Amino acid sequence: MPSRVTELAGFDLLLSVARLGGIGAAARAHGISQPAASARIQQLEARIGVALVERSPRGSRLSKAGGLVADWARPVVEAAADLEAGIAALRVERDGQLRVAASLTVAEYLLPKWLAAMHTLAPGTVVALTSGNSAEVAQRVLTGDADLGFIEGPELPSGLRAETVATDELRLVVAPGHPWAQRRRRTRPEELAATPLIAREQGSGTRRALELALSPHQLAEPLLELSSTTAIKAAVMEGIAPAVLGAHTVATELAAGTLVGLEISGTDLRRVLRVVWPVGQSLRGPAADLAAIAARGA
């Protein structure tokens, strides 16, 4: 970039002097004082090396050289204004769209109320939501297909930063007619580990959290693997087998009595739900707003 034209504010002011007929009028148009406008013109003259404005008791006007410089500067200043407007339009478009990826528990049971709060805060923001298991969510964020993600897995993939936004607890559930439903004692971890369950697929945060909680014991192969929490609950209600799901996902069924919750002895089944984004980046705009809403619990 040539050194004499790296800063365009002085040229823009010079064009206003030419258009409005004086430094005072140009200063008012730019929202600055007349002494400040005069100083800016003088700085421009010093940088170029010629007098651009002829000053007299009757006012000021462009010199011959000033007229030439103004003619040369006009398309440059107009192009810079077009560039600024284009960049602003891109930012508005970017800030008006938010791509979110979320694990099934978050997407189905928590995110709707967060998005409702988001709509109140920024009604013009368009949210595009994709859901999947925690591994799939992490991959979408890492590849740039999502601006931020919500995961429930206990492990954080390399390349992501995370903050806790909510807590959850795994619950062992059975159908009301299942033999375990009448138990008065807690289920032992080794008994649960040895029981074929209806489970989420590999990559699910719920499944991984259970595997870690029961890691001292050998886990039986699942009786069924389903990628839908709703499908798992339906299968449990049919009495096929027990399942372990997040407390958020079974709260309605436990309250209605269509599922029975059982306690597990000596095992910590609490977990955290986290918002994730790429290392080296910061959450800005709508992404930062949604993360803050989630952390406040909407």
UniProtKB/TrEMBL annotation:
UniProt GO MF annotations: DNA-binding transcription factor activity; transcription cis-regulatory region binding
InterPro entries: LysR_HTH_N, LysR_subst-bd, WH-like_DNA-bd_sf, WH_DNA-bd_sf
Domain HTH lysR-type: 6-63
Keyword annotations: DNA-binding, Transcription, Transcription regulation
Pfam families: HTH_1, LysR_substrate
Superkingdom in the source lineage: Bacteria
Transcription is among the record's keywords: yes
Similarity annotation: Belongs to the LysR transcriptional regulatory family.
Protein name: LysR family transcriptional regulator
Organism: Amycolatopsis acidiphila
